[in-house]
Specification:
255 residues; alpha/beta; TIM Barrel; five-stranded parallel sheet; two-stranded antiparallel ribbon; 10 helices; 9 strands; 42% helix; 14% strand
Length: 255
């Protein structure tokens, strides 16, 4: 039985309940901490061990096969980040390293993709060119667009759509996100969608009070408290909801 590493230890895929596919424990900004140590309340000694200088691929591979630093926790996914500037040389170097480690280890890949500029498609191209299994790839932040054509291209390429900034209305109003997600389910794509908030319990960018003032809906409770009721009102079935929250993550991690 395939297993997935978690902070509670490795568990069987079949034991996974509802899974929120993209959340954070910490967000630490290296430039801020180098210039202003302790900015935002970050305590490096208490929060993380010092980084070790290692080659990219060996670093990534160790994280998924042995553990992250000295924590004893294996990473469950690899990560690619492509924002609006696109696949710059440095980003492509990282993406290629991730693709190579994925090919060697079979570890699934989650991405940060700037949806308005359709960056998920170039992520798929880079990964596919290096033999990646796009069925083990989730293209993230896909709820930051209402372009169904783009979303359907991601799905046609074989990847999962990461509807993983739920409650965050910075790009698309929440009602528009709900309408788009319900339409995807209506078109039969619930089997290629996974949900999350992309929220952290701590970030040195803003205090929780500042975030709550600007983005009051961006809470860890938003999916179950608002998104799911909104989907049901739009005709999405409980079976489709279970598909997105439970069965899809099982298949994603199980391979």
């Amino acid at each position: 039985m395939p297993k997935v590493p978690t902070t509670a230890g490795e568990i069987d895929i079949d034991e996974l309940g509802p899974v929120l596919m993209h959340e954070h424990v910490f967000l630490r900004t290296e430039a801020l901490q180098l210039g202003w140590p302790g900015f935002g309340g970050w305590d490096a000694e208490a929060e993380v061990a010092a980084a070790r200088e290692r080659m990219l691929e060996s670093l990534f591979e160790r994280d998924v096969t042995t553990g992250i630093g000295d924590t004893g926790f294996r990473a469950a996914v690899l990560k690619i980040v492509t924002d609006e500037p696109g696949m710059t040389p440095d980003v492509e170097r990282l993406a290629v390293a991730v693709a190579n480690v994925h090919a060697r280890t079979g570890t699934p890949v989650c991405t940060h993709a700037h949806a308005p500029s359709q960056r998920g498609l170039e992520q798929q191209r880079i990964l596919a060119a290096r033999g990646a299994d796009l069925g083990r790839v989730m293209i993230g932040h896909s709820n930051e667009t209402t372009d169904l054509g783009y979303l359907e291209q991601i799905i046609a390429g074989g990847s999962y759509v990461g509807w993983d900034r739920c409650g965050l209305a910075a790009t698309v109003p929440l009602a528009g996100q709900l309408d788009t997600l319900a339409t995807l389910c209506e078109r039969g794509y619930a089997g290629r969608i996974m949900l999350a908030h992309d929220k952290a319990s701590f970030t040195d960018w803003f205090t929780n009070a500042e975030q709550d003032f600007v983005l009051p809906d961006w809470q860890f409770t938003y999916i179950h408290g608002a998104l799911l009721p909104g989907l049901r009102e739009r005709g999405v079935t409980d079976d489709q909801i279970e598909q997105m929250l439970v069965r899809n993550p099982r298949e994603f991690f199980g391979g």
